[in-house]
Amino acid sequence: MMREDVRGELSLGEFAQSVNLSVWRLCHIFKSDVGMPPIRYLRLLRMERAKDLLESSFLSVKEIAYQVGLNDESHFVRDFKSTYGFSPALYRTQFKNNNSEEPHNGNNGSNGSNGTKPSKLQQELIRVAKNSVLPSIHLVVCMVSYLTGAWTTLT
Q1: Number of domains, the chain
Q2: Residue 137 has pLDDT above 80, yes or no
Q3: Interatomic CA distance for residues 120 and 30, integer angstroms
Q4: Higher pLDDT, 101 or 81
Q5: Does residue 70 form part of some domain?
Q6: DSSP per residue over 57-114, as a string?
Q7: pLDDT of residue 56 exceeding 90
Q8: Cα Rg of the chain (Å, integer)
Q9: Which letter does DSSP use for residue 20 in this model?
């Protein structure tokens, strides 16, 4: 239910009622199953969706914040930076630069496998992957790292 609507227009009370539980019981069960409270999980889902939008769209940071359910851009920027270590604008710039350089680097996009040091973005993605609480984020970060040639630093 949360993954379908990261904008979070369903309140915790409505969410609990939809599964016929009290808010307290829902939070307790959710935390024991997922490992974190529902609000924190929703925040991570929002940041994951925002990261996807930064990588795949030309929406402004403010528009992306709205798309993921945060009407305050500064709150969104702070949450994104605390999750990924970069502001959304810097993350997008680094992502676009890394993807545009790969076809022209003369080694068929195999950064890292030839002994070069991973970029700061790759290092940060690896750090996030190692400390990630969401397996889906971990998987995405590992796939990105593998595709950019930084996979060897994970093992």
Answers
A1: 1
A2: no
A3: 35
A4: 81
A5: no
A6: ----HHHHHHHTT---HHHHHHHHHHHHSS-HHHHHHHHHHHHHHGGGSSSTT-TTTT
A7: yes
A8: 18
A9: T
Cα separation of 89 and 110, whole Å? 26
Rounded to the nearest integer, the mean pLDDT of the chain is: 74
Is the pLDDT at 105 greater than 80, yes or no?
no
The span from the CA of 89 to the CA of 87, in Å, is 6
Q: Which residue has the higher pLDDT, 33 or 101?
A: 33
Question: Is residue 126 a part of any domain in this protein?
Answer: yes
7-17: b or e for each residue (b if 16 or more CB lie within 10 Å)?
Answer: ebeeebeebbe
Residue 69 located in a structural domain: no
Contact 26, 37 (CB under 8 A): no
Using alpha carbons only, what angle is made at residue 139 by residues 12 and 73, rounded to the nearest 5 degrees? Answer: 50
Residue pair 72/65 in contact (Cβ under 8 Å)? The answer is: yes
User: Rounded to whole angstroms, how far apart are CA atoms 99 and 93?
Assistant: 10
Confidence of residue 103 (pLDDT cuts 50, 70, 90): very low
130-152: average pLDDT: 48
Phi, psi at residue 116, to the nearest 5°? -75, 150
Tell me which residue range forms the domain holding 137. 105-155
119 lies in some domain: yes
User: How many whole angstroms separate alpha carbon 113 and alpha carbon 29?
Assistant: 44
